[in-house]
Amino acid sequence: MAEPKTLGQMLEARGISRRAFLKYTSYLASSMALTPLAAKAMAENLASARRQSVIWLSFQECTGCTESFTRSFAPTLEELIFDFISLDYHHTLQAASGEAAEEARHIAMRENKGKYVVVVDGSIPTKLDGAYSTIAGISNLQMLEETVKDAAAVIAVGTCAAFGGIPAAAPNPTGAVGVDQLVTDKAIINIPGCPPIPEAMTGTISYILSFGKLPKLDHLKRPIAYFGNNIHDRCYRRPFYERGLFAKSFDDEGARKGWCLYEVGCKGPTTYNACATLKWNGGVSFPIQSGHGCLGCSEPNFWDKGGFYNPLPAPIRDVGKVAAGAAAAGAAAGLISAAAGHARKKNAMKEGKS
Amino acid sequence: MTDLLDFARGPALQFSLAVFVFGVVWRLVSLLFMPRLKDKSAIRSGAKPTMIAAVAEFFRRMLPKPEFAKRTRFTTINGWVFHLGLAIIVLTFAPHVLFIKSLTGLTWPALPNIVIFAVGGVTVVSLILALAHRLSSPVLKLISTMDDYVTWVVTITPVLTGLAAASHVGLRYETLLAIHILSICVFFVWFPFGKLMHGFLVFLTRGEMGAQLNRRGIKL
Ligand code: SF4
Ligand code: SF4
To answer: pLDDT class for A184, splitting at 50, 70, 90?
Structure first.
């Protein structure tokens, strides 16, 4: 059978009915808050979308992001769309290895010059000229520069690629950074999360396939459709927050009653992601629903914000020691002032007597 | 990459709390160890023990003397309202309780947010009335210095920014929270050097006054 040319043909070949496909596109469109007209256009355009060449670069990462997209327990339409894009290069998924793999990357770059999309997962080490991570004899830094040169757009998947991620955690020994700190002349979309929600990825790719342009992004280059909502604003535990009912530990009465997790370190109020609305594993649950506070994994520096279990209002630097030092210095300064006062008094008394 | 909130929760809080502690300790220690003139007057007969007189004076000055009650009604009531309001907000709003716990290890139950919002609203109105009174009373206006106005600004700003942050209005929550924390940092830095220091000095000044009046003059 000839390789299907459009997504519609591919889905048909896999036995997906048009009705199921329309249902899915309207779900995607509503998840992105598109107008009914745009939703209709998305359904039509997506069905006739042609394969998009994608070069997937995995740098300093744990493969969690790739796992998130590829290891769902049942095949879904998202996965099929993911299958549909032409992954011309992906270390973990491609069959080729060694020189053949690198050759595949070069061919994809040549044949789709100016049209291919580069997906990056993992941060890029910059110290020692990038020597901390190399692939096929070149540093990640070089590979990124070389590959994005003729790309149409770059999608940074996961918090590592978007903001440097865990490899960039203090003291950041490898000088890890995210893509947009290195690539400044290309359209970049960040889909952060540790890992990101699969729908945010497929939704964004579907949008690009349908409309040939990037979706609306926020100030951190994240698609607003998925990262426009604050977890705290959408959290079902919010009424407990408002009423001042908090779990004090993970196994107390409050935790069992499903009270707010603010006191045990929830970072929902400062986190933007779709967890509370789309949820995970096909809408089954999300971390807060299973009893753990949000870690803020879709935000820059989420690991260096004073500890996952420290509540948001707590200072993120050690105040105790500095305050103790300040108290000692204050006491010394006070005694000096007082001593100066005593000296002045003594002088005045002397002058008074003479 | 650090953002405004990280800056506020990190170096800004650390620095401002250090300045606060340094300033308060410096002023209290220098005051307590200051040279004093020995009071050589004879103690009035029937005087209370000095410590009791000092503590009694602290409480006595919480309410005006009956003969002044009418004339000072506004300042008394309004003063009580915003002081109590500030105390309720600072000590019983859940995030504040957690902030204090993170610094001192001490904790107590918090009040529901709706109560804090209501108290916050009343406090803001009361602080505005206090300023209006200061500006409209010729005597008060005359004796007011820049210190009074700066103190008013650094007091009302955290309340306003806190209300905005807690209700997520205007900017993004993390920006509002950062601005709120920064406004508290300014409050901490100003505290020891301006009139806010009365938060500590009120105990010393009233006590000292009580002790002195106890020795001489007529019975109060
Ligand atoms: S659990 Fe977290 S996100 Fe939910 S209401 Fe509490 S603080 Fe907000
Ligand atoms: S709830 Fe928070 S920590 Fe958990 S996945 Fe979502 S954004 Fe990340």
So the answer is: very high
A276 Cα nearest atom in ligand 1: 3
Which has the closest alpha carbon to B152: B139, B135, B171? Answer: B135
Q: What is the ipTM of this complex?
A: 0.85
Asked if B104 has any chain A CB less than 8 Å from its own CB, the reply is no
Torsion of CA B118, B122, B128, B134, to 10 degrees: -160
Task: Report if residue A46 sits inside a domain.
Answer: yes
Query: Can you tell me the distance from the alpha carbon of A140 to that of A176, in angstroms, rounded to the nearest whole number?
Result: 11
Same domain, A114 and A246: no
Q: Is residue A264 included in any domain, yes or no?
A: yes
- Do A58 and A116 belong to one domain? yes
Task: Give the pLDDT confidence of A188-225 residue by residue, as tens digits.
Answer: 999 999 999 988 888 888 888 888 889 999 999 999 99
Instruction: Say if A253 falls within a structural domain.
Output: yes
Q: Which of B13, B94, B114 sits opposite A319 (nearest CB)?
A: B13
Model's pTM, two decimal places?
Answer: 0.85
Angle subtended at Cα A150 by Cα A146 and Cα A152, rounded to the nearest 5 degrees: 125
How many A-B residue pairs are in contact by the CB < 8 A criterion?
147
- CATH number, residue A85: 3.40.50.700
- Please check whether residue B134 touches A, CB under 8 A: no
Q: Is the peptide bond before A195 cis (omega within 30 degrees of 0)?
A: yes
Quote the CA–CA distance of A19 and A36 in Å, as a whole number. 17
- For B58-143, where are the E strands, in sequence order? none
Pocket of ligand 2 (CB under 6 A): A 193, 231, 271, 273, 275, 286-288, 294-298
Amino acid, res. A28: L
- The verdict on A81 and A168 lying in the same domain is yes
Q: Please say which residue of A176, A203, A227 terminates a domain.
A: A227
Q: Could you report the per-residue pLDDT of B96-136, keeping only the tens digit for each?
A: 999 999 999 999 999 999 999 999 999 999 999 999 999 99
Distance CA A172, CA A212 (A): 37
Domain that holds residue A81: 7-227
